[in-house]
Amino acid sequence: MxxxxxxxxxxxxxxxxxxxLTVVGVILMLLEPFxxxxxxxxxxxxxxxSLVAALGLCFVCEPGSAFSNLIVVDGFSTFFRxxxxxVGILTVxxxxxxxxxxxxxxxEYWSLIVWAVVGQCLMASANELIxxxxxxxCSSIATYILAxxxxxxxxxxxxxxxxxxxxxxxxxxxxxxxxxxxxLTGKTNLSEIRQAxxxxxxxxxxxLxxxxxxxxxxxLAFKVSAAPFQMWTPDVYQGAxxxxxxxxxxxxxxxxxxxxxxxxxxxxxxxxxxxxxxxWVSALLTMIMGNFAALRQANIKRLLAYSSIAHAGYVMVAVxxxxxxxxxxxxxxxxxxxxxxxxxxxxxxHIARKDERYVEVNDLAGLGQRQPLTAGLxxxxxxxxxxxxxxxxxxxxxxxxxxxxxxxxxxLTVLGLLNSALAAYYYLRIIVVMYMQPPSxxxxxxxxxxxxxxxxxxxxxxxxxxxxxxxxxxLDYAGAAAQFVK
Amino acid sequence: xxxxxxxxxxxxxxxxxxxxxPKDQTxxxxxxxxxxxxxxxxxxxxxxxSVLDSPAKMAFETNASWIQYPAIRYHVGIDxxxxxxxxxxxxxxxICVLVSWKYIQKSVKLFYALMLLLMVGCIGVFVALDLxxxxxxxxxxxxxMYFLVGIWGHEKRIYAAVKFFLFTMAGSVLMLxxxxxxxxxxxxxxxxxxxxxxxxxxxxxxxxxxxxxLAFFIAFAIKVPLFPLHTWLPDxxxxxxxxxxxxxxxxxxxxxxxxxxxxxxxxxxxxSHANAGWINGLAIAGIIYGALVAMVQPNMKxxxxxxxxxxxGFVVLGIFTxxxxxxxxxxxxxxxHGISTGALFILVGYVYERTHSLEIKDHGGVxxxxxxLSSAFVITALASVGLPLLNNFVGEFLxxxxxxxxxxxxxxxxxxxxxxSAVYMLWMVQRVFYGEMSDQVxxxxxxxxxxxxxTVVPLVIMMVWMGVYSGSFLPPITASNAQTLVMEHSNAx
Lengths: 486, 493
Known about the structure:
The complex is a heterodimer. Chain A is mainly alpha-helical. Chain A has helices at residues 9-14, 16-31, 41-60, 75-102, 107-125, 129-147, 154-185, 190-198, 206-223, 232-239, 242-267, 272-294, 300-320, 324-352, 367-370, 372-386, 392-406, 410-436, 441-444, 451-469, 471-482; strands at residues 64-66, 71-73. Chain A has one domain (7-485). Chain B is mainly alpha-helical. At the A-B interface, helix 16, helix 17, helix 18 and helix 21 of A face helix 6 and helix 7 of B.
């Protein structure tokens, strides 16, 4: 087909954010040897500017498909692209001071972030299993390295190694599932797979399809840290540098859920009844394991890691419904979770200081008196994580459980709601320490907020409040976008 | 934007403004918050006229869209049932601000800002007519109280604060589930519309009614609190600073009672009737249990706290008689309890500020050292006991009469609670205010200062007024309750 050999300008524009970021990533690597060690800051600015430019490009391109239907730009992919790029921007803001303090200000960090974002954008917009896999690997490999970025640090190394080994297993499962699907249907394009499943003449054995879906589920569940494949999360989140943990808990997770929704709803909705029970059980287990384990954590990064598992459970509840309302609820949840969680981790980054010495919950003692503003904003993020009204986290839970009741999952809703009440306990503990315990020596010599962190925390707080007071702007968009993945 | 919106918005704006004030200007902050709360109180008095004209209908209604889909509306209004509860809130908040004037010295700004936020939450619950909005205010009122107990409370404050939060949260998530279920079934969160749909037969809940009722009921019963869900209350009340105890006992417990009357009765009439038996049983158990436990409390605050468990049992009992007179008594009793228990907590707080002890055994002869304080306490204690011509008598009498129409045995058992209340209250008065002065009391206790008169005198006036001439307050309550019972009967088919 010589006509389509050269893609049209519109098609190239649809892939422009990824292209731009890939090129910037390469440029950053090339610049690294030529910048003196004490003049690395401009590289961070370059990263920031290019991410903002990519954000702009997401809005410029018109909806449609590109490269023989490998990529689709629709409301769904734009939503997730914008989300992961925003997370990227916030991560860069959180990391600037952190890397300087740790003495690891290097361009590799920035290019890895940028490439991880490219991978996540691809996961959001690809409509084809192989490309989805490439996006996932691109994002994962960059994140593996980021997790171990401080290479002299023992915990960093442990985190990176664990993440890499277990992650490779999971992706292998995913790839195995993809190959099964290809063997069964002869297709890798999700829309075509759906057609093949719907057509009684070409539809393969349901049992085999369900097995293949099971393999895909294993791979994806690992990436979103859903039970029973959540074991790696606490260790990796605890060991990785704090800004990277912020990034991992928001960006790759949102993109992996985008992929989850795309694969299960676009490709395998016809066999929805078969995978629904798997997701049902997984959602419930994820919530319960995350929340119960979080109850007794003393390390705040580990606590937030378990909380992140629990939140993945709530999103799984929305995915389980496999309805448009559920998809919209999941999208809204991921957006508000991204902001409140990055905000919380940004405060943790601020508290941790050099070598992350202060990451126990008790290290926050008396923060409410020492730095009322920081403490107030962390309280806002925590209240949002609990799900108190007028924060994004509340509407996120509300929409998820509304979708679940719509789909008649009454028990899942009741158990999920009770879980969210239980979760209040461990978030409250952090508030207790901040406000109700006398200031300790740890908070006494806490430096003021670094400018980058300050911007990141304020922006996250503004987004959390905005989503809590005017949720309809985002939800309407998500609702309109949800129809594209059906 | 009508007067009710202003009453709701003023403390909300005050909350944000107070947070922006410089934190070392403590006097400025106190005066500012006092000004905002007094202004809100004065404005709220303006609500009375229109409500008295037609108490069974919603006055000052505002119904504006907040979120398009799902259709969540800012729908507020006030009628005879909510009128006095709103005014109770606006009346007590400035008093609490004054009470805390000297006592609160730590993080002053945060404390006073949270008082205003608490005011917004409580008023909001009483006036919200959209179930979703109701839930939002319900949760909003929870957060400031959690901080009030946790930061400024006594020794076991953290335990008490967390327990309070988790109990309420556990109940309210179930309520949220029920609210969503109702929306999915009916397509609206609007309470009057839901009641109307049920009356016209356009909405039938069928078997689900019982579950929905229970979901709401448990959330409210935890807040009331109904025995045996009351265990958070002695801790929270006992550990809270004075202002926190007052707002908790006088206003926040009423949120639960109010929810029972406003939501459970009209929306789930059959389930309410079906469950009334065991609910009344628990209410009576609470009345007697609360009184018995209060008798043996060595700590004054915990004694008053357990007396609340006992008194609130009367309210629940009155509501679940489904009689006009019982319901009137219950609502009136909510107000009475707000005034007299609020006053008790304030007076106990004043004693504590002087002697730095809440233990009854550390006191004795306080009356000799501080005669006015003592007189105020005795009047309040007698009001709480239910002496005729003081407020609680009216409420308890009405409730007992309502109960007698349903089941006379209940009346006898509940009346036991009245007798017990005289025992524990008067015994405490005797041990704390009469007898020999201890050294501690002699050196430390002085009588009221003007600020303290300003907090206690209005409350004593209200006790007498509500006891002698209940006609000033009861008619709108009666009219609105009559309306509730009509809805309740017409929906119960």
